[in-house]
Amino acid sequence: MSRSTPLPPLPQPERFELPGGCPVSVLRRAGPAILSARLWIRSGSAADPPGQRGRAQLLAGLLSRGCGDLSSDQLADLVEGLGDELRCEASEDALVISLKCASDDAAALLPLLGLMVQSPWLDPDQISLERQLNLQTLGRLREDPFQQAHDQLRSHLYGQGPYGHDPLGVEAELAGLDRPQLVDAAGALGGHGAALVLVGRPPQDLIELLQPAGRPAWNCRSPSLLSGQEAENEPALVLEEQDTEQLVLMLGTTTVPLADPRSLALRLLQCHLGVGMSSRLFVALREDHGLAYDVGVHAPARCGAAPFVFHLSSSAERAAEATMELLSEWQRLLDQPLSEEELALALAKFRGASAAGRQTCGQIADRQAMVLGHGLDWSYADEALERAGGFDPDMLHVVARQLLSRPSLSLCGPPQALRAAGKVWGSHPLGCPSGVQALS
Amino acid sequence: MPLPSPPPLQAADSFEDPCLLRLANGVEVVSLRQEQAPLVCLDFWCQAGSAGEQPGQEGMAHFLEHMVFKGSERLEAGQFDRRIESLGGSSNAATGFDDVHYHVLVPAEAVAEALELLLDLVLKPRLDPGDFRMERKVVLEELAQSEDQPEEVAFQRLLALACPQHPYGRPILGDRRALKAQTPGGMASFHSNAYRPRRCSLAIAGAIDQLPIETLLASSALAGLDSKATAPPPGVALELLPGVHELELPRLEAARLLMAWQLPAAADQEALAGADLLTSLLAEGRRSRLVQRLREDLRLVESIDLDLNVLESGSLALLEAVCAPEQVAAVEEQIAAVWQEICCTPPPESELERARRLVANGYRFGLESASSVAGLIGHQCLWGRLQPLSHPLELLQSWSVERLGAELLPLLAPERACRLLALPA
């Protein structure tokens, strides 16, 4: 029986708007004298134009390679010279600039946030370097069978759609990207909304630091709430042959955006299935059958149709058993509601994970910038905790049947394991109507 | 825009000192209150890493860590996880070469129950034969998963070549043959020998205001540990074997140049503070010597990292350069050139100050969460090195450019390294 205690709500932040419209939220927090800042700019790799896949990540890498009056080396000298961290990464939905610094250094570093988005150099020599590094990373990722299975499942689920490629891009298209496309992308930053969140001990005169006198305003607005569309795809088996010890299995489908009310039900299902050592998949596949070391559920928050994926890897000779058990667990989700006890435990884990995610300034800044970036309220996480208490097993079951009824299976491993797993898939109710989509 | 002159290093952080409690049987319990923490971390440490395994026990320290979660005399398999997680908590464990630790993160009001559960689980594991057979399958899957990552295989080979006569050269996960031959009885014996008062510590950090730690522990399994136990035998001193080796690996997409150097053992905290500074100066950040030269200027590598691994028998500096196979020779040449340049021309004071700030801030940033603080003080306590939280920051100040050059730079000479070149097959 769950006896977890309610989490105290996150305090409301101080709020203001920069000239130009960027909303800023500041949460002052006791503890070490540090500050974490996140500038969440909507438009990540999902907005890469056709033929330019990899543009958002390439731009993200270049924002810290020269801006304003600072060259790439000068910028690095400033940040590293103070011993702090400043970087920018692209995810599917956003470019996120992350700053973590000692509070005493914040006055020197906060003005960089605006310079990075307003005046990046996009120096051709630095573009060439960053592009080369991204291409090398894309190549190296092929070493990982989990990455291979993930890539081919994503490609099947989203095709040429916004989430169909890794934020790093597609090699042939990334290789062709150059300054004109990046100038376009940089000019559009903020047009789809942005949110800045500061957590910790900020310096005085924040507005002046974020928008120094004489600098033109960054035209930007609060991110709006999206009603993302559900992705359409047919269940299929997708295969990648690799000479590995294990077979990697990923069974998943596309669901709904974070802003969709059903995403909370999916989060509770994820807690039930894959969070902690008492989770259903951990117990059924690892503890009861010894089939895997690492097993879980990948279900990231997204502005659009988010994936919901079971994953595990198991010895090639146990491929058929692992496939059968994994499919049975998915089928169980469709066939029967959680018990009251299972729901109570899932709820406790949801609360526990929320509390664990509020330990550091960086965690809070990450989470809140993402929430605001999705067009949701600052108190979304606390409201979700409250709403979660109102779910009953039947409500979760309805959502599972609505959104998870047609999964696809992605496999990466040696040929005999692929054959054994494919045979199980072909004779299972979840796999019967589908065909094999890829074999390399 | 002129660069601002950096303010002096922040040394005035208001860290509280850890509070030490010694139980009657000699077990040390350390605690630290964190003002802003929403949770409490309980972290049990034991000097029972893979380095303490005897022939035939390879992998047992890690396998035991798995088996601990299969229940105790009082707790059925899975009951611990359900109870901790129903309290809104989470748990995990990790086995290293020198030690193992088990940690639980819970809300403050759940500490008493979580503490009782954790200590019972760790100190009185059930080691049921059926569970033993099933969990061995899980460990073998973990081994297989690791062997499917070519980078892991390369690192493991480097350690085997660098430390052929030392347990650090063996995989913590063990090997299949030894794992398949191990028995619950053998594991029970390993446990009862290792999980002893002078080889254990407990750390409690986070929201611990008003927590009656002494009362909670008075009747715990920890207080009940047999105090007659002897100290563990001293570990074998590490003697890294320099050399040059090559390996071809299937499914490797980029070449790896891996290098290992021996550095002072964990007990020499001051030397390791210097080593931290030196490795940061060499490879942390875009303007560090190696990253600047090999990635930014010459564009020979995708990445280059140099990590300090602090170990009881002798620490290791591990370098990894990821590059195209045809660039390997140039990469190796440039690493040697960078080392030679620093030997001939000591870096300016500003470069050391940059490294000092990177190390200090990395440490300071790591003191935010209850888990990281409990890990830090629990580990210090385990090895008899408990100190004020400000101490590592003070040690950084004791190093000058000249001292680094005289005492530590020679230890990173290319000819002292064990080098492994891993190439795509």
Polypeptide structure, described:
The complex is a heterodimer of chains A (440) and B (425). With 440 residues, chain A is an alpha+beta fold. Chain A folds into 2 domains: 188 residues, 2-Layer Sandwich (Cytochrome Bc1 Complex, Chain A, domain 1), CATH 3.30.830; 202 residues, Cytochrome Bc1 Complex, Chain A, domain 1 (2-Layer Sandwich). Helices cover 42% and strands 18% of the residues of chain A. In chain A, strand 9 and strand 10 form a beta hairpin. In chain A, helix 9 crosses helix 15. Chain A is globular. Chain A starts with 13 loop residues before the first strand and ends with a strand. The mean pLDDT of chain A is 95. Chain B has 425 residues and is an alpha+beta fold. Chain B has 2 domains: 199 residues, Metalloenzyme, LuxS/M16 peptidase-like (Cytochrome Bc1 Complex, Chain A, domain 1); 182 residues, Metalloenzyme, LuxS/M16 peptidase-like (Cytochrome Bc1 Complex, Chain A, domain 1, 2-Layer Sandwich), CATH 3.30.830.10. Chain B is 40% helix and 18% strand. In chain B, strands 1-2-6-3-5-4 form a 6-stranded mixed beta sheet, with helices on both faces. Chain B has a 5-stranded mixed beta sheet with strand order 7-11-8-10-9, sandwiched between helices. In chain B, a hairpin with a 5-residue loop joins strand 1 and strand 2. In chain B, helix 9 packs across helix 12 and helix 10 runs antiparallel to helix 11. Chain B starts with 18 loop residues before the first strand and ends with a strand. The N terminus of chain B is likely disordered. At the A-B interface, helix 2, strand 5, helix 4, helix 10 and strand 10 of A face helix 2, helix 4 and helix 12 of B.
In short:
The complex is a heterodimer of chains A (about 450) and B (about 425). With about 450 residues, chain A is of the alpha+beta class.
